[in-house]
Amino acid sequence: MSFRDRLKETRAKASDGFRGGKLMSSIFRPGSPFRKGYVDSPRNRSYVVMNNVLYHLHPVKVKRHGVRLSYTLCLGGLSFFLFIVLTITGIWLMFYFRPTELAYVDIQNLQTTIAFGSLVRNMHRWGAHLMVLVVFLHMSRVFYHGAYKAPREFNWVIGVILLLLTLLLSFTGYLLPWDQLAIWAVTVGGNMAGYVPVVGAQVKFGLFAGLEATTATLLRFYVLHVLFFPFIIVIFMAVHFWRVRKDGGISGPL
Amino acid sequence: MVDIPEHLLQRSAEARAKALGISVEQAMAEMKGQSDPTIISKEPEVKVIDETPAPAAETPAPATETPAPAAETPAPAAETPAPAAETVAPVKEEHAAETTEKVAAVKIEEKAPIAKTPPPAKADAPDEVDFAPDVKVTQRLLTVVKAKPIQKPVKEPIDKVNTWPHLMLPEFVALMAMTAFLIFLSAILQAPLLEEANPNVTPNPAKAPWYFLGLQEMLSYWDPQIAGVMIPTVVGLILWMAFPYIDRNPETHPSKRKFAIMFYTFFLAGAGTLTIIGVLFRGPGWNWVYPWIDGIWFDDLLDWIHFE
Ligand code: HEM
Predict the structure, then answer these.
(1) Which fold has domain A74-246?
(2) What are the domain boundaries of chain B?
(3) How many CA atoms lie within 13 A of B171 on its CB side?
(4) Integer Cα distance of B207 and B297 in angstroms
(5) pLDDT by residue (tens digit) across B273-289?
(6) Which of A86-90, A117-121, B162-166, B229-233 has the lowest mean pLDDT?
(7) Which residues lie with the beta carbon below 6 Å from any ligand 1 atom?
């Protein structure tokens, strides 16, 4: 036996011992590919989903046409995934950001002195634009497939709320860098909200925490952006995904 | 004939024996076709239900019109109320779903004065009073009906595949591709950061985020009658939510919902055009500019695109 073969065998043994060990068996439930003895069989394929937290999202089996990339273009999944990326990068940004007069300086420091600060900020910002776009495309996909028809009417309603929340998240985040772009974009947007019939003035006052964009607005937008809207959108997403499954999985085929 | 479980046969035989006044063994033999059936036409042993109201002690709530609940049911399977005119009382499907098996029975009526039919039993009357009093009723076993679920799930075969790996792997690939794309984008494009916010210096033009620029562009047309834009926006949003309830056409194929497709496509085209105008073709004072001549007047793009 050559040295290489022996090395290979030792490695396989160690890997088997590790994957079959108590620790791994306690973490991964039966049927997981990470456990010892996983073989690719129909039963194990079912177990991968069924014995996994993923079972909350996915059923064991899905319609064949639904997995064709060309049907959903994975747009709903990507909306969700972008939200997760934004959550992760957003939490990271929160370590370096204070929603006060110092906000602008904090962003400057982030870009110039903090390792990967610029990259993470860019990811958060472009990711947010991308998410608005992808959610919009997802809505268009759903519309063109007529996927909002019975029994999926209510999931469309939830979807529109999700779109609204996505826009609100993006809009509240827009102010946070506290530069000229931020404050004036939000001023223009907030003034548009002031034209809402009947309650326009009140909406605008509530949005700005006053008559115009100040640091009070900054704090308000910050809290809405990092706490309130994410919290709400997660709840609506949970219902949205749940309904996708309860309404019989993905719609179609056409 | 269906294979009837022994315990059900036994139960039917007992009921039959009781109704006809014969022994259980005899009834069983008759049912199995081993002996001639007993003729019941002459004077079958039946119970006649009295019309007199029940004594107060037996009825918890003193309901004057309620007929007597006292009488015993002749046959066990008589759960289904039968209107006086009907002869055959089929076993209700709902009941069948609850129990596993049920015996269907025929009610033979000696005389059925329809006019005399009393009002149906009140809710508090026991279940046994379920046929017209004053009517002699016997039951004869005709057949045993196998219970079936009320909702027969008609499953059309759906072509399905395992989520793992057929859905989860493509999802994973899409996720990785998106991450790679985003990191690449973030590495080459710097997010804008202008001078510090200054409420006293209004930029010209002041633009909203791009997804509101279509709206801002519309506001520029109807500036004096702003309500002419915002009301449709708010109402439109509500209508948009209600859209599935408005579009009742069940078809999903594009060729059968041309109007809806056209509607959305016009909406997309309109929103896209307005947004592009707002982003690229509006300069100082919200005047028309050509981006290739006058440059880009949208700070979100300014930092990383340079025409010249
Ligand atoms: C944060 C935003 C959203 C997320 C994360 C999300 C996520 C998802 C996911 C993962 C699916 C499964 C199928 C697919 O990927 O296409 C789905 C389906 C669906 N979504 Fe969304 N969605 C969002 C916004 C919307 C919006 C704005 C609408 C419409 C106004 C909408 C309406 C629907 C409908 C009707 C379905 C069922 C489609 C079918 O069965 O073919 N969603 N969504």
Answers:
(1) Cytochrome Bc1 Complex; Chain C (1.20.810)
(2) 6-146, 163-193, 204-306
(3) 19
(4) 9
(5) 999 999 999 999 889 99
(6) B229-233
(7) A 72, 75-77, 79-80, 135, 138-139, 142, 145, 147-148, 152, 155-156, 159-160, 162-163, 166, 237, 240, 244, 250-251
